[in-house]
Inverse folding.
């Protein structure tokens, strides 16, 4: 049995995992009513954490766009998951493929 660590394209897994994480952030933001956050409470950093989540969406999105473009991902996890890049080819091409 082959060791998948050397044959599966890890970029594919990273791209779709980031997509799942951005959906988790969206769900969290959807469940949060910003009007209930006490802006005056010094010991409550809820607002700051929410703002970090808002910023992270853009950062994750930019990373996903770059991964998709640079690695010719289709946007279909099932199709992209079937991509296999042999270890030696990875070594020969580096991050160019």
């Amino acid at each position: 049995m082959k060791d998948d660590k050397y044959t599966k394209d890890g970029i594919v897994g990273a791209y779709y995992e980031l997509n799942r994480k951005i959906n988790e952030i969206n769900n969290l933001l959807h469940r949060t009513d910003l009007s209930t956050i006490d802006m005056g409470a010094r010991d409550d950093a809820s607002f700051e954490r929410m703002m970090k989540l808002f910023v992270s969406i853009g950062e994750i999105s930019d990373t996903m766009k770059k991964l998709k473009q640079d690695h010719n991902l289709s946007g279909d996890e099932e199709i992209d998951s079937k991509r296999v890049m042999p270890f030696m080819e990875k070594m020969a091409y580096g991050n160019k493929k």
Notes: The chain has a mean pLDDT of 84. The radius of gyration is 19 Å. Residues 25 and 42 are 24 Å apart (CA to CA).
